[in-house]
Amino acid sequence: MTPAAGRAADPIVDPATVLTVFVVTLTLLPARYVLGPLGAAGTPAGVMAVLCLFWYLAAMINPATTPLRGRQPLRAVMLVLLCSMLASYAAAMGRNLPALETNGADRGLILVAGWVGIALLAADGITRLDRLEDVRRRLVLCCTIVGVLGLVQFFTGLDVASHLAFPGLQANTEFSSVLSRDGFNRPMATATHPIELGVVLVMALPLALHGLLYAPKGRRARRCLPVLVLLVTIPMTVSRSAILGLLVVGLVMLPVWPGRLRFWSLVVGGAGTVVMSAAVPGLIGTVSKLVLNIGSDSSTTARTDDYTAVARSVHDRPLFGQGFGTYLPRVYRILDNQYLGSLVETGLVGLAALLAVMLGGWFLARGARRASRDPETRHLAQCLAASVAVAAFAYGTFDAFSFPMAANLTFLLVGCGAALWRLARESPEVSSGAPRAEANEATGASGVEGANGPSGAGRRDGGNGASDANGSDGASGRDGGNGASDANGSDGASGRDGGNGAGRGRSAGEDRRGDRGEDRHGDRGGDRGGPGGQGRTGLPSSQTLERQTLPRPDGSKEVTGP
User: Fold this and answer.
1) Among 147, 439, 487, 521, which is disulfide-ready with 468 (CB 3.0 to 4.6 Å)?
2) What is the distance between the alpha carbons of residues 218 and 438, in angstroms, rounded to a whole number?
3) Cβ neighbourhood burial of 392 (10 Å; 0-12, 13-18, 19+)
4) What is the DSSP letter of 357?
5) Residue-level pLDDT at 177
6) Coiled-coil regions in this chain (predicted)?
7) Which residues are CB-contacts of 92 (< 8 A; sequence separation ≥ 6)?
8) Tell me, what DSSP letter sits at residue 558?
9) Which one, of 351, 319, 311, 316, lies nearest residue 87 by Cα?
């Protein structure tokens, strides 16, 4: 059955809807605006994330609404993260902290509660693949809008975010959302820094590519727009982290794409670089210098100087650190490395918990790919793995937990990967419900995985029988009966007769491949499955075999016809 078949109507408010509102709040409301009394922890998205945790915990009270159904490894990972942060908080409260650091530790607990809530709500609350697809599509749309704002800022220098204030919110800091480097505007749109904007857009890029490659017929041009906006905006942030993140995306995605798609992606990338050089002279050269001079520029040396500066703090408190949220830039220094910052604030235990989150997100997404036989689901899993890999890499280049958009998006994507892991294991053959017959014309196949998909899989539901998505117009199992058909026609069996036996054979004009009524891999005419005859594969159906073994009433010979 398809995910949409045989189910009750969706509730008005479900976790996918709540996560959609969260994504809109996270990406389209400038992160500088907060609820005044809560300070930096009072961003609308942060408050909503904490409420998601309360909703998740409250649902556990009633067995009818509990989200704890089946195995979900991410719960253990989030529990480890939460316990490590609580241990760090307890260790910090055991010494005499200044007021600023105490407030920072309290704020840190609020942030962690929100991250855990978003990850768990996505992992256990998204109950169907089509709802996961809705979240993916809306996230890409919101990031595309943010990218458009970045383009406007790059070319005009207009601080768009300053005009997006909402009643009840106030600016946590006073700054312009347009910085500069080598004469170029560095936009940050609704983010808090160009690095954050670049990293967030790169994390969204694999999901946008998935939407393009599996776009329904007639929507490919529309799905091209998000990919184009993201690819154009990312280098305009003039961020080394974002450019290297693009390389991470390539390293994760290219190996699973067919050769033809790899070729065209490299061609488009090269052509885009040439066009960008002509449209914005000097930009590609500036970005190239950032990457090629990575070991000698001032930005890199400032990051390496952090190691010696924090050595004493790590030595004094190696296990639980000095307390999450207490290493304040205004008091100490900015650590442009989240792993180093976690080591200082939460010690070895907290650093191990952070690494567990990243590795858990990667392995759960990859596990979903291995568990599914559907090409579209497998590709989505690889895209989520690529997004998590970008986050894992970027956390080593800036203090990501200080940037609400990047941090919250990381935990949302980890939760989505865990949800896909669970759904792929529950329904390994079922796709997310999007039309796929014309999804991958650019690759010359019916799916990114190749013409036949892994293990001849990639099935879609058609009526009560499952049909392979590689069939003509998805119609290889369109008997409407109860049987399952395989579009690859393994062993010459197309299964067209359905579960109701022969006698349901198609008329000549009904066959989607023409009016010859031929089997996908057999000879024409002889296997049409006419009334009382054989099935479409040329093999007798179960009812035909039963009729052939019945003797006449006089016992003279067997019946060979109806």
Assistant:
1) 487
2) 9
3) buried
4) H
5) 56
6) none
7) 101, 105, 322, 323, 324, 326
8) B
9) 319
The answer to whether the CB of 122 falls within 8 A of the CB of 131 is: no
User: Please, which residues have CB within 8 angstroms of residue 555's CB and are 6 or more apart in sequence?
Assistant: none
Beta strand pairing call for 33-34 and 465-468? unpaired
Q: What are the Cα distances from residue 30, in Å, to 43, 177, 232?
A: 9, 10, 21
Q: Is the CB of residue 322 less than 8 Å from the CB of residue 295?
A: no
CA 288/CA 469 separation, integer angstroms? 42
The C-alpha atoms of residue 315 and residue 327 are separated, in whole angstroms, by 15
> Is there a contact between 185 and 153 (Cβ–Cβ < 8 Å)?
yes
Q: Which of 135, 127, 20, 75 is nearest to 423 (CA)?
A: 127
Query: What is d(CA 25, CA 28) in angstroms, rounded to the nearest whole number?
Result: 6
Q: What single-letter DSSP state applies at residue 557?
A: S
Distance separating alpha carbons of residues 98 and 86, to the nearest angstrom: 19
State how far the Cα of 435 lies from the Cα of 215, in Å rounded to an integer. 8
Distance CA 23, CA 405 (A): 9
Side chain identity at residue 95, one-letter code:
R
Give Cα separations from 120 to 73, 360, 510 (angstroms).
11, 13, 48
The neighbouring-strand residues paired with 467 are 460
Residue with tokens 């117009």: 473
Q: b/e per residue, 504-516, with b = 16+ CB within 10 A? A: bbbeeeebeeeee
Are 116 and 82 in contact by the 8 Å Cβ rule? The answer is yes
Question: Where is mean pLDDT largest: 69-83, 417-431, 541-555?
Answer: 69-83
**Are the C-beta atoms of 303 and 337 separated by less than 8 Å?**
yes
Categorise residue 495: left if φ over 0, alpha if ψ from -120 to 50, beta otherwise: left
Q: What is the H or E stretch that residue 18 is in?
A: helix 15-28
Asked if 186 and 178 touch (Cβ cutoff 8 Å), the reply is: yes
pTM over 0.70: yes
Three-state SS annotation for 85-135? HHHHHHHHHCCCCCHHHHHHHHHHHHHHHHHHHHHHHHHHHCCCHHHHHHH
Question: Cβ atoms within 10 A of the Cβ of 316, count?
Answer: 9
Per-residue pLDDT, averaged over 62-81, amounts to 91
Is the Cα dihedral 504, 507, 511, 516 positive or negative? positive
Predicted confidence at residue 226, as pLDDT, reads: 94
CA distance 399 to 392: 12
Residue 459 burial (C-beta neighbours within 10 Å; 0-12, 13-18, 19+): buried
Start-to-end CA span in the chain (Å): 33
Task: Report the candidate in 52, 255, 222, 74 with the shortest Cα–Cα distance to residue 137.
Answer: 222
User: Residue 148 CB: number of other CB atoms within 10 A?
Assistant: 16
Characterise 87 by phi-psi region: left (phi > 0), alpha (psi -120 to 50), beta (else): alpha
- pLDDT of 136 reads 96
- pLDDT tens by residue, 336-361: 889 999 999 999 999 999 999 999 99
Question: pLDDT tens for residues 434-490?
Answer: 444 334 444 443 445 443 444 434 433 444 444 343 444 444 444 434 444 343 444
Q: Could you tell me the two tokens for 355?
A: 């690494």
Inter-CA distances, 540 with 128, 446, 502, 515, 533, Å: 38, 30, 8, 22, 7
